[in-house]
Automatic annotation (TrEMBL):
The keyword Mitochondrion applies. Keywords: Mitochondrion, Ribonucleoprotein, Ribosomal protein, Transcription, Transcription regulation. It comes from Colletotrichum higginsianum (strain IMI 349063) (Crucifer anthracnose fungus). Residues 306-326 have a biased composition (Basic and acidic residues). Residues 202-222, 301-326 are annotated as: Disordered. GO terms for cellular component: mitochondrion; ribonucleoprotein complex; ribosome. It comes from the Eukaryota. Its main location: mitochondrion. The lineage of its organism: Eukaryota, Fungi, Dikarya, Ascomycota, Pezizomycotina. This is Large ribosomal subunit protein mL67. PANTHER family: LARGE RIBOSOMAL SUBUNIT PROTEIN ML67 (PTHR28184:SF1), MITOCHONDRIAL HOMOLOGOUS RECOMBINATION PROTEIN 1 (PTHR28184).
């Protein structure tokens, strides 16, 4: 049987007990950074390994020498069917380069790592018409025709990020990109390189490092720091009491070393900044040294053969003379 609906006055909200109260929060809306909870190993960020695919020229960045399959696959975009591998094969991926930063500059390495991934994502999403069209030249007539790439060809072209990644490395190590921690004040550079201190990042530190004169001028806090130091009070100039918080001198770039598996890859970049030095991997050095050693042995053997040939000719002539006398 259906029960008769009875209106009950108890369902009405009368009084203070039923009044909605908004509870106050004592915690801040923004959580304070706690870098100690990340459990990073000592020296995290000082090395950036750049891996390249042997056939598709896809690029993966890593802070460790051993690739993590799950994290590495997240860096690879889906550019079409059969363009993203289901798993990583170690025989297809090899180190293309290693970016080495000074000891204690792990924060700068993390900033470089972030910029490299952001620039690569821009290459994958904001591509121009050169990836949409392709040119074919007839071998017999020499006529060049332009046609539109199909989906598979366009996906293969988007996967080829080897040259773009090398150009991005040159740009990021030159300080390109907003908020790059590779740009430091002279005091910070001296503390990292000479005193062996650890560089503090603006994002993770409770008390960020003092801004340099160029940063202060860019933010509009003052037009001329020298006037502020002299004590001139103006609305658009830093006051003398705040001048002690400003680090004098322009920003400088931290040095970086790139170890290449193939030293010719550095030519993909138009130019490199002065703070970057180039070298090759140790195993490549061993192979080159072995090749030079074999070349030296071959040259020595050729010289030895050239010296022994006249002696052999003389001995043959003497034997022929003895036979004729007999």
């Amino acid at each position: 049987m259906n029960s008769v609906s009875v209106f009950r006055f108890s369902q009405l909200s009368f009084g203070v007990a039923r009044t909605s109260i908004r509870h106050g929060h004592t915690r801040s809306r923004r959580r304070a950074p706690q870098p100690e909870l990340t459990n990073f190993e000592p020296g995290h960020g000082e090395q950036i390994w750049v891996y390249s695919h042997l056939t598709s020229n896809q690029v993966i960045y890593s802070h460790t020498k051993q690739l993590d399959s799950n994290r590495a696959l997240r860096q690879l975009p889906f550019n079409g069917k059969k363009t993203k591998p289901a798993k990583l094969r170690r025989d297809y991926w090899e180190p293309m380069a290693l970016i080495q930063l000074p000891s204690g500059a792990g924060v700068a390495g993390q900033s470089v790592f972030q910029k490299l991934r952001e620039f690569r994502r821009l290459h994958e999403l904001c591509w121009d018409e050169s990836l949409r069209f392709t040119k074919n030249t007839d071998t017999f007539t020499g006529v060049t025709k332009t046609r539109v790439r199909n989906r598979l060809e366009r996906g293969v072209a988007l996967n080829d990020q080897r040259a773009n990644s090398i150009a991005d490395m040159a740009a990021v190590l030159a300080g390109v990109g907003r908020g790059s921690r590779l740009l430091v004040s002279p005091q910070e550079k001296k503390a990292v390189l000479e005193e062996g201190k650890t560089l503090v990042g603006r994002k993770w530190s409770q008390k960020p490092p003092p801004p340099t004169a160029t940063v202060v001028a860019k933010e509009g806090e003052g037009e001329d720091v020298s006037k502020a130091v002299e004590g001139e009070d103006a609305s658009n100039v830093i006051k003398a009491e705040d001048a002690s918080k400003v680090v004098e001198g322009p920003e400088e770039l931290l040095p970086a070393t790139i170890y290449w598996a193939n030293e010719a890859d550095r030519n993909f970049a138009e130019r490199w900044s002065d703070n970057v030095t180039h070298d090759v991997f140790d195993n490549v050095k061993a192979v080159l040294a072995e090749n030079q050693f074999t070349e030296a042995i071959e040259e020595g053997s050729e010289a030895l053969e050239a010296e022994t040939k006249p002696l052999e000719a003389e001995t043959k002539a003497e034997k022929a003379l003895d036979k004729s006398l007999v």
